From TrEMBL, chain A:
Main location: membrane
GO terms for biological process, alphabetical: transmembrane transport
InterPro entries: ABC_transporter_permease, MetI-like, MetI-like_sf
Record protein name field: Carbohydrate ABC transporter membrane protein 1 (CUT1 family)
Origin organism lineage: Bacteria, Bacillati, Bacillota, Bacilli, Bacillales
Membrane topology category: Multi-pass membrane protein
Signal peptide start and end residues: none
Species: Cohnella lupini
Family stated for the protein in its record: Belongs to the binding-protein-dependent transport system permease family.
UniProtKB/TrEMBL annotation, chain B:
Keyword Signal: yes
Signal peptide segment: 1-22
Domain of life: Bacteria
InterPro entries reported in the protein's UniProt record: Bact_solute-bd_prot1 (IPR050490), SBP (IPR006059)
Protein keywords: Signal, Transport
Alphabetized Pfam families for the sequence: SBP_bac_1 (PF01547)
Upper lineage: Bacteria, Bacillati, Bacillota, Bacilli, Bacillales
Protein name, entry field: Carbohydrate ABC transporter substrate-binding protein (CUT1 family)
């Protein structure tokens, strides 16, 4: 057996770069910390009361939840469908896997910059819609306040579906073919095999993918920052970009409180979900 | 072994001590004799450094482009030659510079010189708290307008080489105006008539890059400034004292309403919130648009991109029957010295050096500007700068933009303008929402009255 002392370096690093900032973050979120105030003052729950009474920050919370919900569902549905499709014996499957995975290795900022001209009113997407006779679908994708958050989510889904596909593929390839042969002999059709065998046996991959898309969705920053910078107005502001704005305004205490709230939302959503899903895992 | 180890440590310590002492002595002797001669050659007000040091000067990327005079490489080379003090310029990305400087100032790990716009520095960097008071520096006596550099507390916390010579206004394509037989509008009604004629000719009357948050405020800058300068002289002071609210000024709502009407009447494209500043040159080069709510810098940019296009300026015509005025920006690119600077004396020396005629003239040769000190040579202005100076500044038809009087960041107001253009807020709601946000920001900045 190895000595417990081998854990110390990693523990120290973890403590310094995660535990310590998190705990001090909790502390600062109850203060009026700012570059203007020379002396920190304890402000109780004022920062949190402000957050829940401010329309722009409530919109940011709503946008974050909407964005995360869309991303969780669609990244996983499309990722799973792609994985199932590319797990069959088609000739170009390796090439296609690489193509679908490729966007996930590019920075979100770069993806955002590439998509801005595509999503412009006279951009590729609208022009293509007109070209194929669907001109009625033309939209102000990034400047219509009612759809902008969905546009950003769509770009994120395009970028990350291939990544989730890769995890599902790994899961699919670990399922023994014996199960499928046995179920086929028992008379199960393709849908029944998928619903009652593939899905339960993929539960570990599903858990990982749901967790990653949940946490990634709630902490989204790069996509929003590069595509709209939270605009127009505050229409696409999310929690992380709002924290960035508040720090820019010099309202560090309030920004830290919002960041603490984000941490709590991620924890409250992720921990019970993780526990529930672990119980449902089936060994292949 | 123990004896040998002790001897080795002692020997190493002795060698290190001798080396350090020799280095210091040599350096001092060398610099001293070298600098003595240089001091005799200098203008007399720049004292040489006692030892070789490097001062750091930190600035945001865009500001270095907007106010390049303090960064003239020829001046920096000359300063380094004369004083043996090196100058290192640190450039921060624009979206980070405020955070970086705020953090550095609050942790006392500062550069020796911070270059920041005057009023923005007072509001965002708390210059009165973190920067040295430079009111007693020798160059202050030679400033053309020392009042312009004074902070609200009456002290001067920075030096700037140039006086403002910019103009925020409506930029227009002279050729299109000529082809359509249009003349420069002098009232809001005339402006609407001009827009209508241009629209009927199949050209977009106004290109509006409202995706960039800072752009719509140019519509308000001159008219708001007119109200505050000509009609309600204590307006900015009252607003900053918390005794008047933005929503209580009916002229503000009227000006916003008129701006919004341009969108509602189709003189500004519905795609305005998708369009940014970088798309404007194409719109002008292809004659897709005739006007833009912008400023002199766009005319200068277009001179480079397409010299064949002749652009002109006129004040934002948001009124009927009132004087129209261009607005000018706050003092840009002010050089501050933080209290926690490592080499404050050398930084002061650099500021004094820049204020001298030789350096002013040298920087002017790169790009003409209106010098801030009275003994520098008169500038040879570009035709556009000359027009701005003759038509507006000399005739007192220029006001300083609202931003220069505000003690807090206005980005949130600009977002409300975007909301208004997107149909999410009425002009009244914009002003009411801003009143609320303004009070919060003023309170967070510990301003009295909030």
């Amino acid at each position: 057996m190895y000595s417990y002392r081998l854990v110390i370096p990693a523990l120290v690093m973890y403590g310094l770069v995660f535990i310590y900032p998190t705990i001090t973050g909790f502390y600062y979120s109850f203060t009026d910390w700012s570059p203007i105030n020379g002396i920190l003052k304890f402000s109780g729950l004022d920062n949190f009361k402000y957050i829940f009474n401010n329309d722009a920050l409530l919109l940011a919370i709503r946008n974050t939840i909407v964005y995360a919900a869309i991303c969780i569902v669609l990244k996983n549905v499309f990722g799973l469908l792609l994985a199932v499709a590319l797990n069959t014996a088609i000739r170009s499957r390796n090439w296609l896997r690489a193509v679908f995975f490729a966007p996930s290795i590019v920075s979100s900022i770069v993806i955002g910059l590439v998509f801005i001209p595509i999503l412009q009113p006279e951009g590729l997407l609208n022009e293509f819609a007109s070209f194929i006779g669907l001109g009625a679908l033309r939209q102000y994708w990034l400047s219509d306040t009612s759809i902008v958050i969905f546009t950003i989510a769509a770009v994120s889904i395009w970028q990350w579906t291939g990544y989730h596909m890769a995890i599902y593929l790994a899961g699919l390839q670990s399922i023994s073919n014996d199960f499928y042969e046995a179920s086929t002999i028992d008379g199960a059709n393709a849908w029944q095999r998928f619903r009652f065998m593939t899905i339960p046996l993929l539960s570990a991959s599903i858990n990982i993918n749901v967790m990653l898309s949940l946490v990634g969705g709630l902490r989204v920053f790069g996509e929003v920052y590069s595509l709209t910078n939270g605009g127009p107005g505050n229409a696409s502001q999310v929690l992380s970009t709002s924290v960035f704005v508040l720090f820019g305004e010099g309202r560090w205490g309030l920004g830290t409180a919002l960041n603490t709230l984000l941490f709590l939302i991620v924890s409250v959503a992720a921990i019970p979900l993780l526990r529930k899903m672990r119980k449902q895992e089936v060994e292949a | 072994m123990g004896y040998l180890r002790q001897k080795s440590i002692l020997l190493a310590a002795t060698v290190a001590f001798v080396a350090v002492m020799a280095g210091c002595g040599g350096g001092n002797a060398g610099n001293g004799s070298e600098l003595k001669g240089q001091q005799e050659q200098s203008s007399g007000s720049v004292a040489p450094a006692k030892e070789s040091v490097t001062i750091t000067m930190e600035v945001g990327q865009a500001l270095k482009e907007v106010a390049p005079h303090a960064f003239s490489q020829a001046n920096i080379d000359e300063f380094e030659k004369q004083t043996n003090v090196k100058v290192k310029v640190i450039i921060d990305p624009d979206n980070q510079v405020k955070n970086v400087l705020q953090t550095k100032l609050s942790t006392s790990e500062t550069p020796d010189i911070v270059v920041f716009n005057k009023v923005s520095g007072e509001n965002e960097l708390n210059t009165a708290n973190y920067m040295l008071d430079l009111s007693g520096e020798p160059w202050v006596r030679r400033l053309t307008n020392p009042d312009a550099l004074k902070a609200p507390d009456g002290n001067i916390y920075g030096f700037v080489m140039q006086s403002p010579l910019d103009a925020q206004a409506i930029v227009y394509n002279k050729a299109i105006f000529q082809e359509l037989g249009l003349s420069v509008p002098t009232s809001y009604d005339e402006f609407l008539a001009v827009c209508e004629k241009i629209k009927q000719a199949g050209i977009a009357p106004i290109f509006a890059p409202f995706k960039d948050r800072w752009t719509f405020q140019i519509w308000t800058a001159g008219p708001f400034g007119y109200v505050a300068t000509k009609e309600k002289p204590s307006l900015w002071a009252d607003i900053n004292a918390g005794t008047t609210k933005f929503s209580e000024v009916p002229e503000f709502e009227e000006i916003l309403t008129k701006g919004l009407q341009l969108v509602e009447r189709g003189y500004i494209s519905p795609s305005a919130l998708s369009d940014d500043y970088n798309m404007a040159p194409d719109a002008f080069m292809k004659k897709k648009a005739a006007m833009m709510i912008m400023g002199d810098w766009f005319v200068s940019d277009m001179k480079v991109k397409d010299p064949s296009i002749e652009l002109g300026l006129f004040p934002v015509p948001a009124f009927n029957g009132k004087d129209l005025m261009i607005s000018q920006s706050q003092i840009t690119g002010m050089l501050h010295i933080p209290k926690a600077a490592k080499y404050p004396e050398e930084a002061k020396m650099f500021l004094d050096f820049l204020s001298q005629k030789e350096q002013m003239d040298r920087a002017q040769s790169d790009q003409p500007f209106m010098p801030s000190v009275n003994d520098a040579s008169a500038p040879s202005l570009t035709p556009l700068q000359q027009e701005i100076y003759d038509t507006y500044i000399k005739t007192n038809k220029a006001v300083v933009e609202m931003n220069a009087f505000m003690k807090v960041d206005l980005t949130e107001l600009w977002k409300y303008y975007q909301d208004m253009i997107a149909g999410g807020k009425t002009p009244k709601q914009v002003l009411e929402a801003w009143d609320e946000k303004f009070a919060e920001l003023m309170s967070a900045a510990n301003q009295p009255g909030f």
